[in-house]
Amino acid sequence: MLMRTDPFRELDRLAQQLTGPGTWSKPSVMPMDAYREGDEYVVAFDLPGVTADAIDIDVERNMLTVKAERRPVAKADDVQMELSERPLGVFSRQIMLADTLDTEHIKAEYDTGVLTVRIPIAERAKPRKISIGVGSGRKEISG
């Protein structure tokens, strides 16, 4: 049997039970990090315990939507749950992407509970050097 002494953890658990798990119509938020790495933006989502086939990634115009569902693990009939703090249900996050990102070439990979989405910066948005033309010669003002 597990013993807990943190009363606030119990309040958090009760609040989670009252609000219920996330559903497709009212999903819970998933934690993420976003940063720029070279010529692409990287967004990493924490999704521990979620299988790759339970993750949905969509891009519509400039809106990136990630949805995932953590399903309950099948338990034997003789198992009695003593403590359940890991949330189950649906998790979702929407990110508005800038026009300077190339949404046609987004890549995603899932490894050890982290979904990493890589969004390349569009060629038109990359810094470039502008050459300066030199006039054909000096002009004199005569009077």
Please give a structural write-up:
- The protein has 143 residues and is mostly beta strands.
- It has one helix at residues 7-19, and strands spanning 28-29, 32-37, 40-46, 55-60, 63-70, 89-96, 107-111, 114-120.
- The termini are far apart.
- The mean pLDDT is 81.
H/E series: HEEEEEEEE
Distance between the termini: 104 Å
For the largest beta-sheet, the strand count, sense and barrel status come to: 4 strands, mixed
How would you describe the oligomerization state of the chains in this entry?
A: single chain
Quick check: average pLDDT?
Answer: 81
Spatial ordering of strands, largest sheet: 1-6-5-4
How much of the sequence lies in strands comes to 25-35%
> How many runs of DSSP E, i.e. beta strands?
8
Which ranges are low-confidence, i.e. pLDDT below 50, for 5 or more consecutive residues?
A: none
Number of helices: 1
Helix fraction, binned, reads under 10%
**Using only CA atoms, what is the Rg?**
25 Å
Global morphology: rod-shaped
> Which class best fits the helix and strand makeup?
mainly beta
Descriptive keywords:
143 residues; mainly beta; 1 helix; 8 strands
Secondary structure layout plus pairing:
Elements: H1 7-19, E1 28-29, E2 32-37, E3 40-46, E4 55-60, E5 63-70, E6 89-96, E7 107-111, E8 114-120
Parallel strand pairs: 1-6
Antiparallel strand pairs: 2-3, 3-8, 4-5, 5-6, 7-8
